[in-house]
Design a protein that fits this description.
It is a single chain. Strand 17 and strand 18 form a beta hairpin. This protein has about 400 residues and is of the alpha+beta class. About 40% of the residues are buried. It contains twelve helices and 21 strands. Strands 9, 10, 11, 12, 13, 14, 15, 17, 18 and 20 form a ten-stranded antiparallel beta sheet that branches. The chain is globular and about 60 Å long.
Length: about 400
């Protein structure tokens, strides 16, 4: 059986419930390379899962040389090397390049992950000129202070999921927010960048060596500043064809093409301004919602690209989709929480997935780590779906004790 080498860091539902079952449907044997072996083995040491990897192998997946060494020790050359992790796109691309397998350009994956390099590249290409600077300690911050346009964003240069992202309105707030980040991780490179005001959108694309297909995008509702936690996303941007084409042109010129890409941007009066390019599938359970809404085997299509197949002609089904995240408002021990369910009403399907169990300790991180549960729905009519989501949301409650 042909092998898919799948690089993973932490255990995720996208891999466990999406890509591994998809690989099984394609007749691929999944060899899971990870630096968290015991966590993955513990997860798969339970019955009733939709699919299982054939092997779980310890590997420093952040090091492409270690990945190559591990693969060369195997009896056969893999059919594909893939990762859905933000952190591991570059390792994956370099390893795939070594074995002459379909892949992303590792220069582009590196620039997408390193947000400072993304800003610098966009500026060099004349695609977007946004003030930004990188600081790693108090001395570097002191040197940068005089040129900083307030309000400004502070975030880890290689961060994920809005973790440690905040808005600073003045020097005192900026110094405090940087100090908190360095207290958590000394010497961590922080990206300071000009704040872009406006509604947040996403663009979801798939590509092979020749073609790029736009699946569509979400309108995203965020928590109030100074933090930027995603609270809700509704399918369909409502943007014009010309506005969407501008975003596609920017990411194409940046180098995006092969595989899945999730781009976040703000639409301003002067056009789109990029927030982040996440060169992988959209996450936080929107990948499953996207598959259901568009009625396409999304995970299988992505893996087929890495196996060398061309992007198929996709007949995108029109539909409505809405996802809502419920966040903790205080830290403590979870004493009561709703259970998982799936409900149907006419052509609407709404699913609730709890992300924390009774007895869990809740710590506020002002990111998606604060999510207690996620409610997602799909149907044909956006207004009816929204009303049903509101009705169900009003009945969901959590209790957190001290």
């Amino acid at each position: 059986m042909s092998e898919l080498i799948l690089l993973a860091h932490v255990s995720t539902d996208a891999v466990n419930g999406g890509f591994i079952p998809a690989a099984q449907c394609l007749g691929l044997s999944v060899v899971l390379l990870t630096d968290h072996v015991e966590a993955h083995r513990q997860y798969f040491n339970q019955a009733g899962l939709p699919a299982y990897p054939s092997e779980i192998v310890a590997c420093d997946v952040f090091n492409p040389l270690a990945v190559i060494d591990t693969i060369t020790c195997r009896a056969q050359t893999p059919a594909a090397i893939f990762s859905n992790s933000d952190h591991l796109q570059t390792s994956t691309a370099i390893a795939a390049d070594y074995f002459s397998l379909p892949r992303k350009n590792w220069h582009v994956t590196y620039r997408a992950k390193n947000k400072a390099e993304m800003r610098a590249d966009l500026q060099t290409r004349g695609l977007d000129v946004l003030w930004h600077a990188v600081v790693s300690d108090k001395a570097a911050l002191a040197q940068a202070l005089d040129g900083i346009p307030f309000p400004c964003i502070v975030k880890p240069r290689e961060g994920v999921a809005s973790q440690q992202v905040s808005l600073s309105y003045d020097r005192a707030e900026l110094e405090s927010q940087c100090a908190a980040a360095w207290n958590f991780q000394p010497g961590q490179p922080l990206l300071l960048e000009e704040y872009i005001a406006g509604p947040l959108y996403t663009l979801e694309t798939l590509g092979d060596a020749e073609n790029l297909c736009v699946l569509g995008g979400f309108q995203v509702k965020l928590s109030p500043p100074p933090h930027f936690v995603e609270l809700e996303a509704s399918w369909g941007t409502g943007l014009t064809v010309e506005q969407e084409a501008q975003v596609v042109d920017i990411i194409r010129r940046f180098g995006i093409g092969f595989g899945a890409c999730h781009t976040e941007f703000v639409m301003t009066d002067s056009g789109p301004r990029l927030i982040e390019i996440n060169y992988r599938n959209i996450g936080d359970y929107r990948e499953f919602l996207l598959q259901d809404t568009l009625d396409i085997p999304l995970f299988e299509i992505v893996l087929r690209l890495y196996c060398g197949e061309a992007l198929p002609q996709l007949n995108i089904a029109p539909g409505a989709a809405l996802i809502r995240y419920f966040t903790a408002r205080s830290a403590g021990r979870l004493t009561d929480a709703p259970e998982a369910f799936v409900r149907h009403a006419d052509d609407i399907q709404i699913t609730f997935k709890p992300l924390c169990a009774i007895g869990d300790t809740v710590n506020l991180a002002h990111s998606n780590k604060d999510y207690l549960g996620v409610l997602s729905g799909a149907g044909s009519d956006a207004q009816r779906l929204g009303r049903e989501m509101d009705r169900i949301s009003s009945g969901l409650a959590w209790e957190i004790g001290a």
